[in-house]
Amino acid sequence: MAEIAIRLTNVSKRFSGTATDAVTELSLEIPSGSIVALIGPSGCGKTTTLRMINRLIEPTSGRIEINNNDVLSVPVTDLRRGIGYVIQQVGLFPHRTVAQNIAMVPKVLGWEKARIADRVAELIELVGLDASLTNRYPDELSGGQQQRVGVARALAADPPVLLMDEPFGAVDPIVRCRLQDQLLALQQKVHKTIVLVTHDIDEALKVADRVALFNLGATVEQFSTPDELLRAPRSEFVERFVGEDRGMKRLALKSVSQLPFDQGTVVDARCAVPDAISVLDNAGADWLGVTSGGRFVGWLHRDDLIPGADLGAGPLRQPAAQVTPSSTLRNALELIMTSATAGAVIVDNDRFGGVVTVEAIRKCLSSEDQ
Amino acid sequence: MLAQAAVPRDIGLFEFLFGSKYWTGADGILASLSDTVVLCATVVAVATAIAVPLGAGLAHLRRGELSVTWIVTLSRAVPTFAIAGLLVPISLRRGWGFEPWPIFIALLLVAVPPIYLTSYTAVKEADANTVDAARAMGLAERNVLFRVELSLATSVILAGVRVATVQVVATEPIRAFLGGDGLGRYVRDGLGQNNDNLLLGGAILVASLAALTGGLFGIIQRVALPVGVRRLVHRQP
Amino acid sequence: MTVLGDAALLGEATNPIIRWEWVIDEWDQIQAALIEHIELTFLAVMVGLIVSAVLVAFALRFRSATAPINGLTAFLYTIPSVALFGLLVPLFGLSRPTAVLPLSAYTLLILVTNTTAGFDAVPEPVREAADGLGLTATQRLFKAELPLALPYIITGLRIAVVSTVGLVTVAAIIGQGGLGSLILTGLRRTFWTPMTIGAALSIFLALALDGLILLLGKLITPWSARRRTP
C-alpha cells in the first residue's frame, strides 16, 4: 500500500448555477492507516470534498488518487466497492436484515455464501454488536446500533479506505462517545485510512491523527495533528474555531503517563516523624502522603503529626484525588482543583505511581512550546 | 323511453354537430344537454346536502374514523353501471319506470364519497388547528380564526364537489343504455344504427361536457377563494 | 341490500328478481361472461402496468417530464368512458382493442400516481448509501428502490383493478362487456335475472380481486407488516 493513501491535487468543484467554487484548488495528502478529520464551518466544502473521493460528486478540475491510482481511471461502481462509505442517517435498507445489509457488497462481488456468513459474523463482533441482532430488521435497532451496522456494512469487503460523513451526528452524546471509542478501538485492529467529516471540534481532536481545518471553498487553514492545532494555531480563524479553551483541550489529549515521575511529599510509613516534617518544610506543603508496602494509604495533615508516632497508624485521610497512568491531564487537573490536597495520587495497578501536581501539568504544557 | 334520435344515417359529422337542425326539438342536442345537466346538478346538490353535514358533523364529533377507509374502499369497488342495472328491475317493480331512480341513486353513490371525504378531512384539520391556536392566542381571536379556517375548509370541500361533479358527468352517459336519454343517447343511437358520425358526434359532445365542467369548476374555485388561501389548498384530496 | 330478500318481499313468480332456473340453465353463458370480464380486466391492467412503468421510468430519469406525464394521465382519466369507447369504435370496430385501450388509459393515472409516490417514499439516505456502496443504477433499482416502492405500487394496482372491473361493465355497450353484457341482455329482453346476476357478480368480482391483491401484497412484502400500509 502506498504511503499516501489519498492524494488530492488542485481539486476544484463548482456547482452549476453558483457564483463561487465550493472547493477551490484543494491539495491534500492523507497518509495510509491514519484517521484524518475534515472540519470547518457550514458550507466550507468538507462534505463536498469527501464525496469527490468516491465520486458521488465529480470534481470540476484537479486530480484525486487513491493508492496512486486516479479515481477517474476505474468504473465508478468498482471504485466505490473499494471504498467504505458511512453517512449520518446510515441509510440501512429497511427491508433487509442486519446480516443482509452487511452482506450487500460481498454479494454483489460474488463471494460464496459461507465466506459471506463468516465475514458478517466477524464484522458484527468487530463493531461491538450482539450476535443476537444478526437477523433483526433496522427498525428494531437503536440509533447507535444502526450506525454500527452501517460501519460494518461499509467494511464488509475490506476496503482500504473508509469515508465517514458526520457519522455520529444523529445520536445522543453518550452514544456518540461510545461510538467514537469504538472507532478508535476498531482502527487499532484494522488500520484503515479513514477520512471523517465532522462539525464537532472535540470529536475531531479526540479521534483524528491529523485534522484539516477548512475555511470557505475548502481552503486549508491548517492541517496538522490535534495537539499542534491547539498549541500553535496558524491564524486567527483557527484560534477562533478551536475555541478559547485551547489549553484545556490540549490537556484532554495528554495522559498522566507522559509526566516525569514525581515523588511529591509522600513518604513510607516507616519514616520517622521529624524526617517527615522536614520533607514538608522543604516542599512548603501541609499534606503528607503515606505509603506502605508500595501502596498508597492516605494523607496526613502536618498538624496531625505527633512526634514519635507511627505514620502508618492513626486516622488517615483517604486520597480523594486519584488517577491512573492513562487518565488525561485534564481529568487530573479537574480532580486536583476539587480536592484539599495539592496533588493527585497516581495509582498504577494498585501501586503508588507518583504524584501529579498543578505545577507539573503546567510545565508539561509550556515545555512543548519551545 | 328509449327514444331513438331522429338523425339520418348518412349525416356528416360536422353537419350533426353544428347544424342547428339537430340542436332543437325534443330529441335535439339542447334538450338532451339540459336533461343531462339537470340530472347531474340534482345529484350533486343532493349529494352535497347529505355528505357535507354528515362528514363535517362526524369529524366535529370526532367519530367515524373508520368510515373514511371503508368509504374509500367501497366506493372504488362498486361498479356504477352494475348498481344502476341492479336498481332498474326494482324501480320497475315499484312502478317508477326506468328513470330517474336507478341512475339517480347510482350517480349519488358516485358523488357522495368524494364530498364526504373532503368534508370530513377539512373539518378535522380545521378543528385541530383552531383549537390549538385558540388555546395559544386566547378566545377572543377565535372569530378571526374561524373565518380563515372556514374559508380553508370551504375550498377543500369545494375541491371535493368538483371531483364529484366531474365523475358524475363522466358516468352519466351510461344512463342512455339503461332506458334513459341525456347526452349519451347519440352514442347509443350511433352504435345501434351503425352510424359512425352520429357515434363520434355523441362521443365528442359527452367528452366536451366533461371538459367544460372541469373548466367551470376551475373558474369557480379561482373566484371563490382569496389568493393566499388558494395556494394553501393546492393539495388534491 | 340482498337481492334474494327483495324477491321474497315481492313474491311475484312471473318476473322475479332472480329466476334460479335461468341461472342454472344459462350457467355456461354466465361463466363465459365472468371469464371474459376477468380477461378484459387482466389485459387492461397489464397494458396499463407496462405503459405506466415506462412512463414512471421516464419521469424518474427526466424530472421535467413528470408534470406533462401527470397532466396527460389526468386528462385521459377525465374523458367519460362512454365517449372514449365511442370514439374508438369507428377506428377498431366492436372488438377487444376498442375496449382494452380506453380501459388501460384509465388505469394510467392511478398507476402512475401511486408508483411515483412509491418511489418518492424511498428514503434519500437509502439511495445515497446504495450509491456509496457501489451498486449500479439497476442494482439500486431492484435491490433498494423497487422493494420499498412495492407497497405503494400494489395499492395502485388494487385501485386500478377494482375500477377497471367497474368500467368493463360499461364496455358492454360495445359488446365487450363481460358481466355488463348480462345486464344489457336483461334490459333488452326485459328479463331481470341476468341483470341482477351480472350486477351482483361484478360487485363480487371487484371485492374479491381487491382482497386477493391485498393478500398477495402482504405476502411479497413481509417487511411492511410492521409499518403502516400506505
Describe this structure in words.
The complex is a heterotrimer of chains A (370), B (237) and C (230). Chain A is α/β, with parallel strands linked by helices. Chain A folds into 2 domains: 241 residues, P-loop containing nucleotide triphosphate hydrolases (Rossmann fold), CATH 3.40.50; 111 residues, CBS-domain (Roll), CATH 3.10.580.10. Chain A contains 14 helices and 16 strands. In chain A, the strands form 4 sheets. Chain A has a 6-stranded mixed sheet, sandwiched between helices. The radius of gyration of chain A is 26 Å and the shape is elongated. Chain B is built from 9 helices and no strands. The two termini of chain B are 38 Å apart. The longest helix of chain B is centred in the middle third of the chain and has 37 residues. Chain B is mainly alpha-helical. Chain C is mostly helical and 230 residues long. Chain C has a single domain, classed as Orthogonal Bundle (MetI-like fold), CATH 1.10.3720.10. Helices cover 79% and strands 0% of the residues of chain C. Chains B and C meet through helix 3, helix 4, helix 6, helix 7 and helix 8 of B and helix 1, helix 5, helix 8, helix 9 and helix 10 of C.
**Net shape of chain B:** elongated
Domain module count of chain A: 2
* Cα distance spanning the termini of chain B: 38 Å
Q: Order of SSEs of chain A, N→C? A: EEEHEEHEHHHHEHEHEEHHHEHEEEHEEH
Question: Based on helices, strands and strand pairing, what is the structural class of chain A?
Answer: alpha/beta
- CATH top level of chain B? Mainly Alpha
**CATH level 3 topology of the largest domain in chain A:** Rossmann fold
Q: Mean of the pLDDT scores of chain B? A: 78
Which CATH-level-2 architecture of the largest domain in chain A? 3-Layer(aba) Sandwich
Helix content of chain A: 25-40%
CATH class of the largest domain in chain A: Alpha Beta
Shape of chain A: elongated
Largest sheet of chain A: 6 strands, mixed
Write out the CATH superfamily name of the largest domain in chain A. Answer: P-loop containing nucleotide triphosphate hydrolases
Instruction: Indicate the percent of residues in helices of chain B.
Output: over 70%
Could you state the CATH homologous superfamily of chain B? Answer: MetI-like
The number of distinct β-strands of chain A equals 16
What is the beta-strand fraction of chain B? Answer: under 5%
Q: What is the CATH fold-level name of chain B?
A: MetI-like fold
Q: Please work out how many helical segments of chain B DSSP would assign.
A: 9
Rounded radius of gyration of chain B (Å): 21 Å
